[in-house]
Design brief:
four-stranded antiparallel beta sheet; conserved putative lor/sdh protein from methanococcus maripaludis s2 fold; Elongation Factor Tu (Ef-tu), domain 3; 422 residues
Length: 422
């Protein structure tokens, strides 16, 4: 009994001595499992991040891709210089760039400089006279819709600026001008002055200014008081055979004495822009092609024109001639102008060209839908090395159609329909 009890005590003591070691090993094992779990989670996250590092997307938005080049050149047009047979002071009663009719009074020549306030009154009355039309004729604006649109747009912009500046008098004047140009008149029949009344007032004012001799337009067109003696150099007959050396020669020509010349009338229906450009730029054009021109020194609006001629090359340059009949404010009094020529312009959904993929012979893009890749066929309207302009291809279910604000995949390691990418 005594030995049995002693053995029991010894076993118990041995177990007590062994227990702390086992507990220590258990803690180490638990820590190892935790550490291993953390490492595993890290590896999984690292793989996920690694895969998604190759994922880049963009948003499908509307945009435009334009290509072209900038050119510095000259304006060529038909223009008649008007001379005065007597000396004196020429005072125009029409504005620079205004369109006038044949035999219309465009100014007066006075022996002595007239009072500026009287001239301004004559201009105002003359403007009303021409906008109403004479002897029941339609106002001159109806004969040139392009010009009318430009004038109305300018008046509206000016009126908007005047409102901001609280120039109420100018706002009222521009409002009246717009009404007249729209054929509205803005006045009732009882208050509107007749053409005869307006002309009588003009005659009276002219007499008080010194009985100036009237100058009339020999033909219809656009009025310009800018006469520099170079008009013959910029006639339409010169542009038809223009070559780089001729335009280079124009660079060195200086204004000449104008003698008794007081103003000119320009045929505003067809005019030409001619410029020397590099062979590379010229080769992007072809005769008969429609291009857009923006004369950024004169206006923010772009107009269309047609390439009418491309000369042979001289020292790596060609003369490009573009014809148009569009109205540009200030173009009729300018000789040398700068222009941005847009040869290609396409509008639609604008995406990086890397987005495009061909699947089973069909061109399209992959978009992210519910964290998976979905292929959307598209029509490619235009693309260059950087951008593509596309349009969506109609789908019967509506879900297979590219939509504005879709998240489009630009780059990913591998792509296929339905692949989970997030």
């Amino acid at each position: 009994m005594e030995n049995s009890e002693n053995n029991s005590v010894m076993v118990s003591q041995r177990q007590k001595r062994q227990k702390p070691g086992k507990q220590k090993k258990s803690k180490i094992r638990t820590a190892a499992l935790i550490f291993g779990g953390v490492v595993l989670i890290y590896i999984i996250c690292a793989v996920f991040v690694s895969l998604n590092k190759n994922l880049s997307t963009t948003t499908a938005l509307k945009g435009t891709v334009s290509e072209g080049f900038r050119a510095s050149g000259y304006v060529f047009r038909d223009q008649d210089v008007i001379n005065s047979d007597t000396g004196g002071y020429f005072e125009p009663v029409v504005g620079e760039g205004d369109r006038v009719k044949k035999d219309q009074v465009i100014g007066y020549v006075y022996s002595e400089k007239p009072d500026s306030e009287i001239i301004e009154q004559i201009k105002s009355l003359n403007s009303q006279l021409q906008m109403r039309g004479i002897d029941g004729e339609a106002a001159v604006y109806t004969g040139d819709m392009t010009y009318a649109e430009g004038q109305i747009s300018d008046a509206i912009r000016t009126m908007s600026d005047d409102r901001i500046n609280r120039d109420l008098k100018s706002v009222a004047e521009n409002k009246q001008k717009i009404k007249l140009m729209l054929g509205n008149g803005g006045e009732n029949g009882n208050n509107a002055k007749s053409a005869q009344q307006l002309q009588s007032e003009i005659d009276a004012l002219n007499n008080s200014a010194g009985s100036g001799r009237p100058i009339t337009a020999p033909d219809g067109g656009v009025f310009s008081s800018h006469v520099d003696g170079l008009e013959d150099s910029f006639g339409t007959d010169k542009v038809k055979e223009a070559v780089p050396s001729y335009l280079t020669e124009l660079d060195n020509r200086q204004p000449a004495e104008v003698g008794q010349a007081v103003c000119k009338i320009i045929n505003n229906y067809t005019w030409y822009f001619a410029a020397n450009v590099s062979e590379k730029d010229a080769d992007t054009l072809q005769k008969g092609q429609t291009v857009k021109m923006e004369f950024f020194d004169l206006t923010n609006n772009a107009i269309s024109g047609t390439v009418s001629r491309i000369s042979d090359a001289e020292n790596g340059r060609k003369t490009v001639v573009i014809s148009t009949n569009r109205y540009v404010r200030g173009i009729y009094s300018a000789n040398r102008v700068n222009a941005d020529l847009v040869t290609v312009s396409s509008e639609g959904i604008k995406l990086p060209v890397e987005c495009l993929r061909v699947v089973d012979g069909v061109t399209g893009v992959y978009v992210v839908r519910l964290d998976a890749a979905k292929f959307m066929p598209v029509n490619v309207k235009y693309k260059n090395d950087e951008w593509a302009i596309v349009s969506a291809v109609d789908s019967t279910d509506g879900e297979g159609r590219l939509r504005i604000y879709d998240e489009v995949i630009v780059n990913y390691k591998t792509l296929e329909e339905g692949k989970i990418i997030r």
